Amino acid sequence: MRNVRHTSKRLNRILLLSGLLLVLCVFFLMALAASQVDISQPEETISVPLSDWKALKERLMTADASIESSTNSLKQADSLTMTQATELKRIEGYQQREGESLNRIEGNQRETGARISESLEHNNRARAEIKSSLELINGIERRNQEQ
User: Fold this and answer.
1) Which of 24-43 are b and which e, b meaning 16 or more Cβ less than 10 Å from the residue's Cβ?
2) Where are the alpha helices (DSSP H) in the chain?
């Protein structure tokens, strides 16, 4: 029984491989036939006077030179555009750093202004204390003189 199963599996494999090989051969033959059909068709030709041919060839050469010149100009323009983009990024970075510096300076100015205001307030209090002390001293001196 074992031998029959083994033989059946082997037969199935052989049949499957044979079928695949047959399909591949059919596709190959179809491709070969299609290429033979394409090759067998003659290419159409036209007759052109030699002077017209030379004039056409000259115009084509001129057009080719013009296209080449345009291509070079476009390459130069592209290069300049890339350079400008790089410079623009550099300038934007510089402007950003300058903006950050200005923000720091503004912060420092606010802090300095706050310190100056605080110092002025202390000075005014000190002046008021001095004035009060002077009035007290003057009052004491007047009392001493009156006695």
Assistant:
1) eeeeeeeeeeeeeeeeeeee
2) 2-40, 50-146
Instruction: Give the rounded distance of the alpha carbon of 82 from its chain centre.
Output: 12
Q: Which tops the pLDDT comparison, 105 or 11?
A: 105
CA 98 to chain centre: 24
Question: Would you give the DSSP letter of residue 41?
Answer: S
Residue 2 has pLDDT above 60, yes or no: no
Tokens linked to 7: 């033989």
Question: How far is the C-alpha of 27 from the C-alpha of 20, rounded, in Å?
Answer: 11
Q: What is the pTM of this model?
A: 0.42
| Residue 57, amino acid | K
Cβ–Cβ under 8 Å, residues 56 and 48: yes
* pLDDT value of position 3: 61
Residue 78 and residue 84: Cα distance in Å, rounded?
10
- Whose tokens are 């923000």? That residue is 103
Close Cβ partners of 56 (under 8 Å, ≥ 6 residues apart):
48
124 vs 84: CA distance, rounded Å: 58
